[in-house]
Amino acid sequence: MPPASDGRRRAQSDHRARRVPAVDGVDRADSPANTPTAIRTSDATIAAAADRLIALAHSIHAEPELAFEEVRSVAKVIEPLTERGFVIERGVADLPTAFRASYGSGPLTVGVCAEYDALPDMGHACGHNIIAATAVGAGLGLAEVADALGITVVVLGTPAEESGGGKVLMLERGAFDDLAMAIMVHPGPLDIAGATSLALADLSVVFHGREAHASAAPELGRNAGDAVTIAQVAIGLLRQHIQPGQQLHGIVGQGGAAPNIVPGRAELLYYLRAADSASLDDLTRRASACFEAGALASGCTHEVATLSPTYTELTPDPALLSVYRAQIADLGRVPIAPELERQRPLGSTDMGNVTNVVPGIHPVIGVDAGGAVTHQPGFATASVNASADRAVLDGARALARTAITTASDPVERDRLLQGVVRRQEENR
Prior knowledge:
Layout: H1 3-17, H2 35-48, H3 50-62, H4 71-84, E1 87-90, E2 99-103, E3 108-114, H5 128-143, H6 146-149, E4 151-157, H7 166-172, E5 181-183, E6 186-188, E7 199-208, H8 224-238, E8 247-254, E9 265-274, H9 277-298, E10 301-306, H10 318-330, H11 351-355, E11 360-361, E12 364-366, H12 377-382, H13 386-407, H14 410-426
Parallel strand pairs: 3-4, 3-5, 5-11, 6-12
Antiparallel strand pairs: 1-2, 2-4, 7-9, 7-10, 8-9
Helix pairs in contact: 2-5, 2-13, 3-4, 3-5, 4-5, 5-13, 8-9, 10-13
């Protein structure tokens, strides 16, 4: 075996032999042998906090707040972490409703992502109240074993997932730089361990025409509403020729002021999605031709603007995913078969950008929603039912167990620590 491999084996052997300071009078080894004890301790901590975690999920649900406006929700999430002794940093990455809550001083930093923004008119129809409470629960469980495992626990408050790309902005501004892993769970109608998502572009297309009296002098007008119609027809025809995994859907954001005025301005709001970033680039090029056609045929001009940072596809870390899959099964849940996971993409999430830089996972934890799916009113109602409460606790336990098991494995620990060093060197 090459010398580098010999060196790695010696380093792993040294790592297994190291011990960390005693906690509660018990001297624990930073090794896989410590994992069952740490898991029992974490599970017990989460169980003791169960009533509070469920109350947190219900309270966030009762006062939904939109992207970048989640002031009350942030205060609710931070409160139990502050009481536990987490150090709180608000306004992370120059985002007023982003925060970082840290506990411990170990060399391996475990990041647990909390989301808490809601949807317009539907409230928490995507279950972000469950995500927030789960992140707090996992953070509390991990804090109880942080010193024993030599980890630092970070609960990262990430605003504006539904629209605005809070995690993308935080990633670009360095909020994830020191994280060895980034983990979270998202509710849905099924348990999906290796959840996938689509890359997404969030576009505004504004058409500019010329106003005129629609009856007395229509020949003087240039109808921006017609440009919208032509573009929509072109998009509809394009759909039969797009690649598998590509999607286009949108609404008319503005179509005119009154029937007797030729619209001088109209707007389309569109999401373009694809299986990966390269495919999204191809779809964007083809959709752009449809928008241009609308302007050209109607005698208008147009401009395309990106409203949110582009989301990339989820890339779950295989090792973290394997551990999570085992832990969620141990809790009595049965995720769909791995071979079916790519057939059920989640839509899109800014966690995709994170997992393409930091080892991470974004599994789906099942909620009984009576047949409703996310972004339906029925799912908003289900986000505070008994199965949602169970999802909060199971999700918290599974995330904490995943972090504990991985941090206790010398090989995985070394891989994650080296990943942080490599990223930091690349960013210099």
